[in-house]
């Protein structure tokens, strides 16, 4: 039984290792290395190898599910579980593609961890620190150690694991590349036109109830959120057309105008502009009546309505496109054509011929 230097017994939990001569404590060394089941049994080793291979195969299955779901469980196209272009279709598409990708990535990691814990060498080694500079002999020795380490991983002796690992790693990038096939075709001139241009002469209607707006309805310094009167739920691609056609009208005192060209596209100080910010497409929905500034709440881009909605602050780089308006025989506001420029954020050929 170990005792302290004075002959007394140590308290529970207190080390009884005697100090070595000259001070300090002796190196207690490493604890005994516990053997794993795969170290003691060939059958256990084989089971571990098969489990690792099975997890790599599950990763491949996950990749296949993701790719298949991307094409047959889509939110706006084919969907095996719900009607296309419904919230349920979006839900199923997100669920199946998300689960497929999660399984593909998770089981690659799980297989690598299980491989390391059950089959790769896990004994601890202690090497004394030596001079940083190494001789050619040391470099040759280091290279030999690397070769031995690779040999110890058992890669050469475990073709099943290697084959399934390579297959899983090769299949995973396909899940990333598959969506690239649906990026085309090029949009052509679709970004240059909205429902206003496809159907000239549309009355401006209140966004919330679809009732047309008369010039006399627009009070000084007021703002209306508007849509084309003919844009209904029965319209083909309703949500896309609605997103592009969103506009606002404001009324200012013509005496405050700084841009004659912009005022000429309005009626008695009533001006119409796209509601879509030219920075990243957020809705420009805030209007300051005293300053006549329109504000985008996302990144604070600010547009001066008295000067053709030019940018006076924020990250946007071009004015809000203006919608020319007129008054028809019954006093209703109508749009004879489309916005003066493509709506929304800028893109590579925004000023290309329409």
From TrEMBL:
Keyword annotations from UniProtKB, A to Z: 2Fe-2S, Cell membrane, Disulfide bond, Electron transport, Iron, Iron-sulfur, Membrane, Metal-binding, Oxidoreductase, Respiratory chain, Transmembrane, Transmembrane helix, Transport
**Highest rank taxon of the organism:** Bacteria
Taking every annotated instance into account, which residue ranges of this chain make up the domain Rieske? Answer: 266-334
Q: What is its cofactor? A: [2Fe-2S] cluster
Q: What are the record's GO terms for cellular component?
A: plasma membrane
Give GO MF terms, alphabetically.
2 iron, 2 sulfur cluster binding; metal ion binding; monooxygenase activity; oxidoreductase activity, acting on paired donors, with incorporation or reduction of molecular oxygen
Start and end residues of each stretch annotated as Disordered: 1-43
Which InterPro entries has this protein been placed in?
Answer: QcrA_N, Rieske_2Fe-2S, Rieske_2Fe-2S_sf, Rieske_Fe-S_prot, Rieske_Fe-S_prot_C
Please report which protein family the annotation says this sequence is part of: Belongs to the Rieske iron-sulfur protein family.
Main function: Iron-sulfur subunit of the cytochrome bc1 complex, an essential component of the respiratory electron transport chain required for ATP synthesis. The bc1 complex catalyzes the oxidation of menaquinol and the reduction of cytochrome c in the respiratory chain. The bc1 complex operates through a Q-cycle mechanism that couples electron transfer to generation of the proton gradient that drives ATP synthesis.
In Swiss-Prot or TrEMBL terms, this protein is called Cytochrome bc1 complex Rieske iron-sulfur subunit
């Amino acid at each position: 039984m170990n005792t302290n230097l004075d002959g007394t017994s140590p308290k529970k939990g207190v080390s009884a290792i005697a100090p070595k001569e000259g001070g300090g404590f002796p190196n207690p060394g490493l604890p005994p290395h516990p053997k794993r089941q795969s170290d003691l049994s060939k059958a256990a080793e084989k089971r571990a190898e098969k489990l690792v291979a099975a997890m790599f195969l599950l990763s491949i299955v996950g990749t296949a599910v993701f790719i298949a779901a991307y094409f047959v469980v889509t939110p706006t196209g084919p969907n095996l579980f719900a009607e296309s272009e419904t919230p349920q279709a979006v839900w199923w598409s997100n669920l199946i593609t998300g689960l497929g990708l999660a399984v593909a990535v998770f089981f690659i990691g799980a297989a690598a961890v299980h491989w390391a814990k059950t089959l790769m060498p896990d004994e601890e080694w202690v090497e004394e620190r030596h001079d940083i500079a190494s001789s050619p002999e040391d470099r040759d020795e280091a290279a030999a150690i690397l070769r031995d380490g690779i040999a110890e991983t058992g890669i050469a002796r475990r073709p099943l694991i290697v084959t399934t690992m390579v297959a899983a790693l090769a299949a995973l990038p396909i899940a990333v590349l598959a969506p690239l096939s649906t990026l085309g075709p090029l949009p052509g001139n679709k970004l240059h036109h909205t429902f206003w241009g496809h159907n000239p002469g549309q009355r401006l209607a209140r966004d919330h109830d679809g009732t047309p707006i008369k010039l006399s309805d627009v009070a000084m310094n007021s703002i209306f959120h508007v849509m084309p009167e003919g844009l209904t739920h029965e319209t083909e691609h309703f949500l896309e057309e609605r997103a592009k056609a969103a506009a606002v009208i404001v009324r200012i005192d013509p005496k405050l105008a700084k841009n004659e060209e912009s005022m000429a596209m309005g009626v008695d100080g009533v001006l119409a502009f796209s509601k879509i910010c030219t920075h990243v497409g957020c809705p420009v929905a805030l209007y300051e009546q005293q300053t006549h500034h329109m504000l985008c709440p996302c990144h604070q881009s600010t547009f001066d309505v008295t000067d053709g909605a030019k940018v006076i602050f924020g990250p946007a780089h071009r004015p809000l496109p203006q919608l020319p308006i007129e008054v028809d025989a019954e006093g209703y506001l109508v749009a004879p054509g489309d916005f003066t420029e493509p709506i929304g954020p800028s893109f590579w050929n925004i000023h290309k011929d329409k």
